[in-house]
Structure formats: C-alpha cells, structure tokens
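ok new one. same drill as before - structure tokens go in, u give me an amino acid for every spot. 75 of them this time. try not to just spam alanines like last time pls lmao
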C-alpha cells in the first residue's frame, strides 16, 4: 500500500518543530550534490576556516556600504 504525499505531510506536521527540522536535514543530506554545489560547499568551508583561523578580517555592514558608496562615486 502506497502512502500519498498528503498523508506524509499530515504526519510531518504532527511532529515537533525540532523533529521536522531534523527530518528536513536528513532528507537533504541524502540528496546527491551537483558539481557546482560541491564547489560552493568547498568554498564556504574554506572561508569559514579562514575566519576561524583569523586569516581574514570581517567587516560590518556599515563599513562595507560606506566603501561601496565611495567606490561608486569614483566611477
């Protein structure tokens, strides 16, 4: 006997929010990644490592916006 999507959804919405999030995580973790997604993940991991190791300086939003505005005024 097959279970319909509507039946699955009904059951999922009966779960706690934490369990719903865990289910989503589990489903997504089992999906194959494209080469682009793999490259994006590697890049994100590299950047996170650089932040953790203090190799890069993080800028707050205001500093970035001021810098962008100054560059646009020059152009």
């Amino acid at each position: 006997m097959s279970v319909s999507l509507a039946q699955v959804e009904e059951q999922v919405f009966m779960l706690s929010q934490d369990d719903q999030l865990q289910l989503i995580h589990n489903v997504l973790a089992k999906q194959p990644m494209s080469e682009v997604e793999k490259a994006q993940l590697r890049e994100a991991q590299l950047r996170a490592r650089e932040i953790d190791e203090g190799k890069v300086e993080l800028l707050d939003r205001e500093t970035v916006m001021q810098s962008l505005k100054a560059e646009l005024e020059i152009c």
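The mean pLDDT is 95. and btw The radius of gyration is 21 Å.
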